Amino acid sequence: MSALILALTAGAVVGLTLGALGGGGGVLAVPALIYLLGLTPVAATTASLVIVVVTSAAALSAHARDGHVRWRTGLLFAAAGAVPAMLGGALAARLPGALLTAAFALVAGAAAVRMLRRRGPADEDVPVRPVRAAAAGAGLGGITGVLGVGGGFLAVPALVGVLGLRTRVAVGTGLVVVTANALAALTQRAGTIDTLDWTVLGPFTGAAVLGAWDGGRLSAKVSGEALQRVFAVLLLAVAVFMLIDAVV
Fold it and tell me: Which helix (H) or strand (E) covers residue 86, if one does?
């Protein structure tokens, strides 16, 4: 299968996931870029940030139109994570590829297990505690910078489980966090963007944007809990494969 077809297919899956769940795009994009398209771990995490910024911004517009975005909460998360994301981005460039792959796999696996064990979504929003929101946002920012993901696969569960947002609102709000965190981390890697293969990255990103719009429509028809369980199983399988590859 040609690189172009692989890029289009993987991009569509990444966008669909991000649009439907408010996250998970980067955590699928990184292994796709490494194992399907042959990028190094460092290049893949940089390319993933580009994809996540563009795709999450596109998906965010659809959720905002439907009134499913808590802007104040999302911006608080994002503001707290901006500096950690930049520091994480600088650190990632100095870490061995195998270590990045193993760390990515462990974080993804932990997130998948948490999603599978989590109780059902909250029935209604509760008041947001700024200190808890800022602490969670800072942690997510650091992970975004190091691993090259937007942090949505962790942000949405945090917005539901820690802050008590409804799942559908957490998905929309998580996209604010994802966009801002990925953009902050990308600023630390701006000098390496021109080294990326845009003949692959361009089609990948374009397909992801189209997939994100379809994902937004899917999230309105299928329960958030069902979507998260499917994604969690997929994420756990990817995490196990990447961990084995990093260790062996």
Answer: helix 71-92
What does the block give as tokens for 141? 């920012």
Q: Which H or E element spans position 33?
A: none
pTM for the predicted model, two decimal places: 0.75
Give the position of tokens 């958030």. Answer: 224
Whole-angstrom Cα distance, residue 128 to residue 115?
Answer: 21
Gap between the Cα atoms of 189 and 207, Å rounded: 23
- DSSP string spanning 216-234? HHHHTTS-HHHHHHHHHHH
215 token code pair: 């994902």
pLDDT tens digits along 148-158 = 666 677 777 77
Q: Two tokens at 166? A: 């409804």
SS (H, E, C) 35-75: HHCCCCHHHHHHHHHHHHHHHHHHHHHHHHHCCCCCHHHHH
Per DSSP, 189 falls in state T
Angle at CA of residue 144, ends 51 and 164, nearest 5°: 105
Q: Which of 84, 101, 115 is nearest to 21 (CA)?
A: 115
pLDDT score of 124 more than 60: no
Residue 84 · residue 220 · CB < 8 Å: no
Distance CA 68, CA 227 (A): 17
Distance separating alpha carbons of residues 46 and 183, to the nearest angstrom? 11
The helix or strand, by DSSP H or E, that contains position 188, with its residue range, turns out to be none
* Coil vs helix vs strand at 156: helix
